[in-house]
Design a protein that fits this description.
By secondary structure, the protein is of the alpha/beta class. The chain is 31% helix and 20% strand. The strands form six sheets. Strands 10, 11, 12, 14, 16, 17, 18, 19, 20, 21 and 22 form an eleven-stranded mixed beta sheet that branches. A six-stranded parallel beta sheet has the order 5-4-3-2-1-9. Helix 17 crosses helix 20. The longest helix is centred in the N-terminal third of the chain and has 27 residues. 46% of the residues are buried.
Amino acid sequence: MEKGWEKTDRRKTDEKKRNGKKLIHGADYYPEQWLDRPEILEEDIRMMKLAHINTVTLGVFAWAALEPREGNWSFGWLDEVMDRLYANGISVILATPSGARPAWLAKAYPEVLRVAEDRQKNLYGMRMNHCYTSPRYRELTRRIDEKLAGRYGRHPALKAWHISNEYHGECHCDLCQETFREFLKRKYGSLENLNQAWWTGFWSKTFMEWEQVESPSSRGERAIQGLALDWKRFVTAQTKEFMDMEIRAVRSYAPDIPVTTNMIGSFIEVDYPRLAPSLDIASIDLYPEWGKESPWKVAMKAGFEYDVIRSLKKKPFLLMETTPSMTNWTEVGKPKSPGLHRAGCLQAVAHGADSVQYFQWRKSRGAFEKFHGAVVGHSGHEHTRVFRETAQLGDILERLGEVAGTEHQSGTAILYDWSNRWALNGSVGPRQNKYYEETVREHYTALRSLGMNVDVIEEGENLEGYRLIAAPMLYLIKEGVPGKLEAFVEKGGILVLTCLSGIVDENDLCFQGGFPGPLRELAGIWVEELDTLYPEEQGRIVSMPENSLGLQGIWGSRDYGEVIHLETARAEAVHGTSWYQGMPVLTSHQSGAGCVWYLGTRASEDFLDCFYEKLFSSMEMMSERHRRLPKEVELSVRRDESFSYYFYINWGEENCRLEIPEQAELLGAETPEEAFMKGNSDVELFDAEILYCQGEGKRLLLGPFGTAVIRVARF
């Protein structure tokens, strides 16, 4: 039966609204859980309007409701939900349901279930329990994706496709083993090349037949670290192949609708930079553990993940999932304290998100996530703190609509590469915990503390436009990377390297001729030995007199101490303890118009703060705004051709005052009249205020968890 909207194609009449500048405020919505309660839909739409919800995500785990038996389709309930949402001004991001297959599918086709690394087939139950290689699962997934795209691809409510859900995991079935061998044949061409790349002469691991090669397990072939590294690359390749199949299925009917998939940040073992080219928009699900550490530390961890995702496409991304209150799967399911929801979600917008979306709109009555946070709790009404704070944030996002689509300009980047992380963390030695993730985030936090926008890029990235790149523990060096880094420095770039850099090639084979391997000439040093420290051991960094940056003092260090010999570099600081006391720990080496800094230890946070502040000052990259930024105040900048938007967030417990430009405007602030009309006369939307201080110019006053967006014209 032809729908009314199909006759007139109301999508065209809504084009202006669709393309208008608007931040998405939305949630995952599961009406299929409430089909026996038809009044729920009406009540949900009423409350969505109160909460300023303009978009919902549908269908993420709806396969059983859409195809209750093989080949028997049930779209009536989804038709009604889509139509009713559209009639009430709410857009839809429609998901493909491959993340959780129905029971009939697992029963009829057991080959679709994953096999674990111990070669035991998983039982039906949890989601994301399917084999990406399985032809049957691909066929059934493609069929339902095409059904959805054919039916809803032109629906005026449709805003984007949400492809599957949080792709992750691996399968070790026989079919995956065969496909893995084909992957290796394409990469290496011969077993001789494979044996050389994996150094299989060690422990008599040499392969004589392709059939002898199997996926690694924690009890077996992870001893061959090259094999473990290639297996992770294969899993990413299969994930991407499956995702691309789903994208083709929906695009065959809806080529103009953008596609995204919800990624889970840096800790998932899927190499997201490999997936990114297939997507129109990058998306992230992020659940910061507020309350576990200080708000500042939690915020810096969250900011890193946002910048990882934003850097995939170098354009605005979507915060596809976060909680409006608490999670149920962390060690402690702690609700957000008052003010944290606003500050935490606006932090995502500050880092480039064009949306704030929640898991979930309404709490499930039972099953795995019945205690997970939601906008509407088990009370079923809007008279809760969580709902009020969600509605308040929705109001703010409407006021900040002009920020949508604006981008970041980053002159600074952190080099963070999945293969590098896999190889370093998978290596047996030089210590069990390498502290790679911690070290990367420490350098990131020091840069962000100066108010710098920071991209998080992989080794294959184009380095044009950056002035400083920090590459902590660049252990694995891919082919072509040394030349790119040399060209970057020659043109005037500043490169910061640390201990454990330039150790292995992309097959995890150690470089010969001294470390840091192919970066040795660029860094101007030779590393003779690496000392690893016990937790109770502490190192020291002692500045050299008349060093290049004017560093003065003694700082702590931990975990590593490299024995460095100068070749063409200059010593800027030395070790202050151990048998290598007095030997270089911080060096600099001029190369062309740029400079390479090498830090041969894991430095304390106060050293990194001082080092980067001095380094940026020497580069004249810092403005007065950065120099005067208090420790627990975060600054991010988004821009378009007309305006710069400065996002300030105070993660501290005290009020703070910040100098801002005379021409700055406080964007989105509520007027006293608006507050009075809404009964909010005692509530500041942002907990921020502009003050005029005699003799001091314009000042921004920020309360605890206060957030402000300052607009400054670019001319």
